[in-house]
Amino acid sequence: MDPIVLARWQFAMTTIFHFFFVPLTLGLSIFVAILETRYVRSGNEMYKKMAKFWGKIFLINFAIGVVTGIVQEFQFGMNWSEYSRFMGDIFGAPLAIEALLAFYMESTFIGIWIFGWDKVSKKMHLAAAWLVAIGSNISALWILIANSFMQHPVGYSVHPETGRAVMTDFWALVSNPNVQLQFPHVLSAGVSLAGFVVMAFSAWHLLRKHEVKFFLASFRMAAIYAMIGSVLVAGIGHLQGQYMVQKQPMKIAVAEAHYNTEDPAALSLFTVGTWDQTKEVFSIRIPALLSFMTYSQPYGEIKGINELQHDFSATYGERNYIPPVALNYWSFRAMVGAGGAMLLLSFLGLLWSKDEKLIEKKKYLQLMMWSAGLPYLAVTTGWILTETGRWPWIVYGLQTIEEAISPNVPAWNILISLIVMTVLYSVLTLVALKLGLKYGTGETEIAHK
Amino acid sequence: MDLNTLWFILVTVLFIGFFFLEGFDYGVGILLPFLSKKDNERRAVINTIGPHWDGNEVWMITAGGAMFASFPHVYATLFSGFYLAFVLMLVALILRGVAFEYRSLRDDAAWRNRWDWAIFTGSLLPALLWGVTVGNLMRGFAIDADMNYWGGLIPLLNPYSILGGLVFVTLFTTHGANFLALKLEGDLAERAKKFSFQAWIAATVLTVLFVIWSFFETDILTKSGINGLIPALLAAVALLLAGFYAKKGADMLAFIMGSLTVVFATIMVFMGLFPRILISSMDAAYSLGIYNAAASPYTLKVMSIVAAIFVPIVLIYQIWTYKVFSKRIKADPKTLVY
Lengths: 449, 338
Fold this sequence. Notes:
The complex is a heterodimer of chains A (449) and B (338). Chain A starts with a helix and ends in a 9-residue tail after the last helix. The mean pLDDT of chain A is 95. In chain A, helix 1 packs parallel to helix 15, helix 4 (122-151) packs across helix 6 (177-207) and helix 6 packs across helix 12. Chain A has 449 residues and is mostly helical. Chain A has helices at 3-42, 45-79, 81-115, 122-151, 170-174, 177-207, 212-247, 249-255, 289-295, 305-316, 325-352, 362-371, 373-388, 401-404, 411-440; strands spanning 156-158, 165-167, 267-273, 280-286, 393-395, 399-400. Chain B has one domain (3-324). In chain B, 74% of the residues lie in helices and 1% in strands. Chain B has helices spanning 3-35, 39-49, 53-70, 72-81, 83-102, 109-139, 159-183, 186-217, 229-248, 251-273, 297-324, and strands spanning 276-278, 288-289. In chain B, strands 1-2 form a two-stranded antiparallel ribbon. The longest helix of chain B is centred in the first third of the chain and has 33 residues, at 3-35.
């Protein structure tokens, strides 16, 4: 067993599971804080009930997000000690700042939020809700600053004696152009995902005519929320694609299965490659569209996989620089497809949720119950593209994945850890899902307990 | 004082915060199944740390993150070297965290009992494993010239370090019982006081053995220059007073003395290590210290500014939350928050 393969699987597993819970935390924390703001401003008890009801779903989800986050922080040292040595100067800082600025804030004020309804003033309780939301989202910002360095290193130099990356400009690290797109993309993905989760549970109740006023109001707010999130996530995603052509051309080339350099470049609608993914066998392509998406004009060169492989070999030395094409190609399509469907569905929600006629739209509501799966598909495939599209680099252009592994951890240790964590995460996810369904489809009175 | 020393002190402070706060959290978790079988009483026990445990745990995360930022080699060597121990600890911490939040979500005795045992195991194992880790840090382990430890789990489970683990478990149990005596009411508080004194006897016996053994096994208390002898003596005095006050039933003083024991013991370990952080048992030159394991001066400077601003803010709001929830908790189902 190859320790690198196992450690990569472990990173994929822990990260995908972690990010199953994080975007709902990001989006729903703000949603609940908005609900509580409306309660405090209007004094309308329904908004308090709504804050508590959706807050319960938030808490069930939040718990798993927190505990899987601990693994995220520790596994760099455990599985990737050479990475930690090489990058500690740069990567450790945002991680520590994340803990100091964000983790303390969210974990302390969540205590006030859960236990403080009768202990602190209404305004203080509302402040706690916002501090949890801000803390969660600041946490995302700092971990994405760290991730952005791995995608696009800035503000560093490589120390001539130790060979380690050394931070030279903290501000450059923080204002990395990559994170300026990535953070709003992730934030709006969280907003959209939370909107879809709220709409799904609301649709379930509306189909059964439970507490129509309560769930119609929830659905309405969530539709607006999801619409805003979906528009932003798609728009920013488009800009990220353009940015990627400049900074990570290989990632976009594999995401488009774009083998040969073209000007103007066509966009693939459907491509089938050979089994070893080195050549395409068949494709349906729209002429010039890829150039247009990139440069907003119907011409412009986009380098293909083959030329990039040649260029990279000349710059960094002979080896394979091509990430798994099919995985990235289909992940990209799944993400964009899900995003498009989310735009459409949230737009229909916005159009139809103005009044009680929504209850009559049974087909749509049934569809919305299931469509909460779409944003989960999108965020998962989005991260698969972001992380595997960087292969073979762990830090783009600076350190390869092979160089980053802990040399002193035997494969069977990683295997044990991988098996134990996979089983544990799966069981906990099922428990969380069951509890989420129980409370999300339960009577609202439960939330009062 | 240079930045490397400052960061050694800051990491020490974070570990003091971690062991002080999570110390009683772990203790409460360890005592949970034994203090009561009644659901409302168990809920009362959990609620003493309910609003706080998550914020307390962040002290551990921050200590890890700060170590990554300031002494990346220490982070890399320790976490890769103690791999399986950390896997076990992560599993325990995951179960414990989820248990606190999920326990009350079903009104079902078997469900709740299961999560209570998860809280117990999830508190006992990290206490034990951190103790074993600290024992090995004091004793040193086989770090090679490339800063890697290849020995695996078995050499880390030496008798001295296991004794260190048991010291942690009993000290934290005492600390937790003192905390419960302070936070609960009536009968439950009385039971906590009894447990406090019993755990104190075990902690004292084990600590005395551990300290005597440390004179032979380590140079923590004896090395020339800065060593851990003075904080060790202060910890011993605080421990004796903690037992004295626990016996008298003076819950506040017992808690304060127990806390000081944890604080001084942590200072003892770090002063004894200084300026080393990870001691190599192969060759003193292979040890990781505040210079050869550190991040660049620039990173240390940036992090110093960030810490100078945010550590005080964190302290202010965390102390405030303890004030908000300072009232003793009654095991009355009508007033308990589930």
